[in-house]
Amino acid sequence: MKIAVFHESFGEIGGGEILASYLGRALNSKVYSIVKDENINTLGFEDISQHLPLVAKILRRFRSFDYLTWSNVDVRDFGDYDVVITSGLTARALITPDDVMHVHYNHSPARWLYDLWHHRRKSKGWLKRNVLLPLALEFFRIWDTAVDKRVDYYFSNSPVTKRRLWKYLKRDSVVLYPPIEFDKYKCKNSEDFYLFVGRLWHEKRPEEAIRGCIKAKKKIVVIGSGYLEKYLRDKYGKNPYVEIKGFVSEEEKVDLLASCKAVIYPCIAEDFGIVPIEAFASGKPVIADNSGFPPYVVNEERGIITDCSNPDNIAKAIEELEKKKYDPDKIREFAKQFDFSVFKENLWYWLKRWYDEFSQNVR
């Protein structure tokens, strides 16, 4: 099989981009994408922007038109492929030749259209006042359902996204957990600080983590970038318990994971969340929200589950964690099942199995 990976348009590096790079490595394949800022393309994806027709080139910088942009990408411009794997919600709008198998790696159905829609509408004042937005999003739900039919087979990154995919689009999928490179992580003696890792978005709840640490009078180091970064720096940058580093190198992130006391992961109903797995590979416990995938992996031996919507709960979890002793070796052992070697083996198994079935159907 000759395989290519196409990842959705992106303007910053996050878990989805890292997963796409792992797909490329596992398959010895190029990763094509529409790069909105070449300065952040540290993963070396091949930018296909110049292959777009004029209308798609004009609209490619607008997220709302990503489905249209990807519908105009012709995979035959890049090679004679047997299998195309798309990663990221909008890339599944690709229209592949009828003899090319299209597999999509599902990070999650569009959360802003489905399970997080009411949360966002109620939590942001301007959304409450916008009378046209509900109508526009209903149109996007129809569009989302239409492009879904272009996918032949689905991977999902966790049982949570597998359930959402069936609930909202009635599609079945195989769970393939995102990988880590286990040997890259190390465990050091814990220093007296907690760590938040992730995009600085409302759904990731970085402010709740910060406020929880301030209430517990414990230092927190925040790494990540996003639209909340300036707000958080302005509000908490001078607080003695808060250090906001913003974007850091992979090496610095690994070092901070190795030396923190624990990771705070308060995200709302996270689809998978690689951060807790990285924390486990570093021998560190995790304080996580009681929604989404984290409760599948965080237990009393590896951390604390609580309602992270309230910083008081995070503060109480910190106080509880301070009283407990965790076994770093046992925590690290659990993380080995997420190693890249396991991911690669399972990926190839299902691609071969699906391709045999697909080939029979298209003869």
UniProtKB/TrEMBL annotation:
Keywords tagged on the record: Transferase
Which interval of the chain is the signal sequence? Answer: none
Which residues does the UniProt record annotate as the domain Glycosyl transferase family? 182-337
InterPro entries to which the protein is assigned, alphabetical: Glyco_trans_1 (IPR001296)
Q: Which chain positions lie within coiled-coil regions?
A: none
Which superkingdom heads the taxonomic lineage of this protein's source? Archaea
What's one GO MF term for it?
glycosyltransferase activity
* Record-linked Pfam families: Glycos_transf_1
**Protein name, as recorded:** Glycosyltransferase
